[in-house]
Amino acid sequence: MLALRDATTRGSVAYDNAELVRAAAGLLSDDPELLAQERRRLEHVYVDELADTDPAQMGLLSLVAGGGKRVVAFADPDSSTYAFRGADPTAVGTFTHRFRTASGAVAPAVNLHTNYRTGGELLAATGRVARRLRGPAGHRAQTPAAEVTSAVEVRTFRTGTSESGYVAHVLRQAHLLDGVPWSRMAVLVRSTVLQLASLQRALHAAGVPTVTQAEDLPLHLQPAVAPLLLLLRCALEPDRLDEEAAVSLLHSPLGGADPLGERRLRQGLRALALAGGDPRPSGELLVDALRDPAELAAVERRWAAPAKAIAALIATAKEAAANPGATVEDVLWAVWRASGLAERWYGLTARGGPVGDAGEERGLQWRGVAADRDLDAVVALFDTAARFVDRLPGARTEIFLDHVFGQELPADSIAPSADRGEAVRLLTAHAAKGLEWDVVVVAGVQEGIWPDLRLRGSLLGSERLVDVLAGRADAAGVAASLVGQTSALLDEERRLFYVATTRARRRLLVTAVASAAVGGSDHEEQPSRFLHELMPVSESDEDADELPVGRLPRALTLPALVAELRTAVTDPASPAERKRAAAAELARLALAGVPGAHPNDWWGLRELSDDRPLVDEGEPVKVTPSTMESALRCSLRWLLERHGGSPPASAAQGVGNLVHAAAMLAEDATVDRGQLLEYIAGRFDAIELAAQWMAGAERARAEAMVDKLLRWLATNPRRLLAIEHEFAVRLADPLRPVDLTGRVDRLELDADGRLVVVDLKTGKTTSVTEAELAEHPQLGAYQAAVEAGAFAEHGDETGGASLVQLGTTAKEAKEQAQAAVGEGEEPGWAGALVRRTAETMAASTFHAVANSRCRVCPVRSSCPISGKGRQVVEP
Ligand code: SF4
């Protein structure tokens, strides 16, 4: 009413909660008749959470209920956690003096000692924390209302992963074994930004359904809202659109780009810019493209699409904000509608629902739940915008953005909370105030995070004002001493920890990482001092090693149970009794259709499905010279790589392929060097580099290879016959004919009229030693192909074969020549080697042979002698 009145008489006036209270008190003070009327109306006044009231609220209460009115206030000074909003726990101690009885006597204070929430063990533990708090202590002795069992567990872990694994285990155990519904459990953390999201991911992965409601996070940190706000900010304050913001927007649901798409977009923009003589880095080009999408028309459509979408949304926001009288709601609505996210997320929620079993269905359900959460967050954003417009009619969108980005805590919500469903609640300790659950986990209680003793202040310094009023700082406004501020902060943090631990009805688990306690590390993490305070005195010690270290038990999942039973059955050291019990349990699970329980599912026990050779006798075996070396070195690696195990092409291979392609233009040394370099430059951006900063060095390497090739060509005495010449020739054999196929980089004619095959190598190291060269399989296979008539149109006499190393750090290309096969003691060695390779490739068994390349083998996780592939078939 005040806001409406002032908006009509004085224009736009803003009121926050505290200001409304203050203004109401002002109105009543100015109007004795109104005050008297209000006091007559109120017979009893009840105040909840007295310890969290601020001076303005106390002032208003004094006006309407002071002077002997019937006032009943409830307080627990140990749980006051809103000093930053001006709350002062010491108000509890002075309350009975300030609100005296009608006769002027000090009002009576009653300590309530019966605790209806929990049992003895929990009360004793949280009481130990409370004892460390300053202030009145008369209320702290508590006894449980009934004999209920309660339990407290404090555990530290070596890593955050084991910590979240244990938390998941405890929650699953409580749900599956003790029957506690998910919704009667909660996990509390201190820091929204540092802890909430990572813990939620870990619990999801462990199959614990969790819910983080929109109001648990500050609005601007919510994943669904952050991109919308960022987009508005970049649209209305163009200087804010830098490379980081551009990348965030592209990867957000508004843009939908993935890292590959971003890289391709950068490459496309850079290629266009270079063609126009613009050397700017791709980050700048990206930002420009979002401001003015004209350039994007020339980039391949699928890579340009995310940037076009963002550019269009920025234009929409600008246009909507430029309309006279447009409110932040109008601008937000225009962007939201244009984004198309509403339809997409609604589509997902239609498929969402309660958590089900594993598999694809569960994935869909999680996505549905996530979409639900995102939609809730956007609704909360629109609510906030609506309230903002109500309070500040006519305020610009930029002011709304400042308002939202300034919120460090979840905003107060006037909307009722949505049904949270059957899921574990994940929230901050501040948000947990006033709530309780059967099982509560307080996770990530690390020194430095909790207590967080960084000195901080609110925008208006209300906490210092409270100190001044309470006489803890001088009236001139000089800040209290550093020590005083820190100790007040420690008190506030301890009270917050007390609030968190007192949310539990039956079971409390408090966890932290103690990396130094088990071996130490450079970035060791220490458990908070609060963990020691929770422990019984006899167990408590200032030494962190004294805290119990947790071990991760077997996960309470069916696959983990099946694995343990199978181990018990197959372990020769297992006692017969245990084996029998495990086998009976497995039979029961197999009957119920649990995957992996039936021995038919145990791969190691199965007969080979097919023991025939890879190529039937009499059928030709296809051999390519470039794979011979791999097959002869380790036939298992060759087999697995050939059937899907080869890694994707690396950036170095991409550069090598480009140099090979450029070399096709270089028949001899007279070729125009500029033309080759232009060819490289024109296609370089198509290579996928791991990082953009590598582009300069890799391109220089490619150009250096071209120069080395040209200098080698200038000294090469042979005459070129063909470049990139494909061949296919059959080596006849009644049992096992061999189809030798491939492509040679260069086919040349030597001075004696014999054919020489040249293979260009672009790798950074020379892997062929001079000793290996004489029987190098690839070169030998080329010579065998020549002799078999693969290049019959040019002749069939081989003059040898050569590798030309271009990619090493040596200044000049190095030619490694293999002598003509006919010149050695065994003229038929090359053909025999090809046949031996064919035998290897056509076999029915393939051997793992340890060799110098095992370290970089892409299939070692499937290799029985690498130590990683063993578990598939062996106990
Ligand atoms: S790790 Fe070594 S032995 Fe095993 S498959 Fe790879 S190359 Fe062969």
TrEMBL record:
<dbReference type="GO" id="GO:0000725">
    <property type="term" value="P:recombinational repair"/>
</dbReference>
<keyword id="KW-0234">DNA repair</keyword>
<dbReference type="GO" id="GO:0005829">
    <property type="term" value="C:cytosol"/>
</dbReference>
<dbReference type="GO" id="GO:0033202">
    <property type="term" value="C:DNA helicase complex"/>
</dbReference>
<keyword id="KW-0540">Nuclease</keyword>
<dbReference type="GO" id="GO:0043138">
    <property type="term" value="F:3'-5' DNA helicase activity"/>
</dbReference>
<dbReference type="InterPro" id="IPR014017">
    <property type="entry name" value="DNA_helicase_UvrD-like_C"/>
</dbReference>
<dbReference type="Pfam" id="PF00580">
    <property type="entry name" value="UvrD-helicase"/>
</dbReference>
<dbReference type="GO" id="GO:0003677">
    <property type="term" value="F:DNA binding"/>
</dbReference>
<dbReference type="InterPro" id="IPR027417">
    <property type="entry name" value="P-loop_NTPase"/>
</dbReference>
<dbReference type="InterPro" id="IPR011604">
    <property type="entry name" value="PDDEXK-like_dom_sf"/>
</dbReference>
<feature type="domain" description="UvrD-like helicase C-terminal">
    <location>
        <begin position="120"/>
        <end position="434"/>
    </location>
</feature>
<keyword id="KW-0347">Helicase</keyword>
<feature type="domain" description="UvrD-like helicase ATP-binding">
    <location>
        <begin position="1"/>
        <end position="119"/>
    </location>
</feature>
<protein>
    <recommendedName>
        <fullName>DNA 3'-5' helicase</fullName>
        <ecNumber>5.6.2.4</ecNumber>
    </recommendedName>
</protein>
<dbReference type="InterPro" id="IPR038726">
    <property type="entry name" value="PDDEXK_AddAB-type"/>
</dbReference>
<dbReference type="GO" id="GO:0004527">
    <property type="term" value="F:exonuclease activity"/>
</dbReference>
<dbReference type="GO" id="GO:0005524">
    <property type="term" value="F:ATP binding"/>
</dbReference>
<keyword id="KW-0547">Nucleotide-binding</keyword>
<keyword id="KW-0067">ATP-binding</keyword>
<dbReference type="Pfam" id="PF13361">
    <property type="entry name" value="UvrD_C"/>
</dbReference>
<keyword id="KW-0413">Isomerase</keyword>
<keyword id="KW-0238">DNA-binding</keyword>
<dbReference type="InterPro" id="IPR000212">
    <property type="entry name" value="DNA_helicase_UvrD/REP"/>
</dbReference>
<dbReference type="Pfam" id="PF12705">
    <property type="entry name" value="PDDEXK_1"/>
</dbReference>
<keyword id="KW-0227">DNA damage</keyword>
<dbReference type="InterPro" id="IPR014016">
    <property type="entry name" value="UvrD-like_ATP-bd"/>
</dbReference>
<keyword id="KW-0269">Exonuclease</keyword>
<keyword id="KW-0378">Hydrolase</keyword>
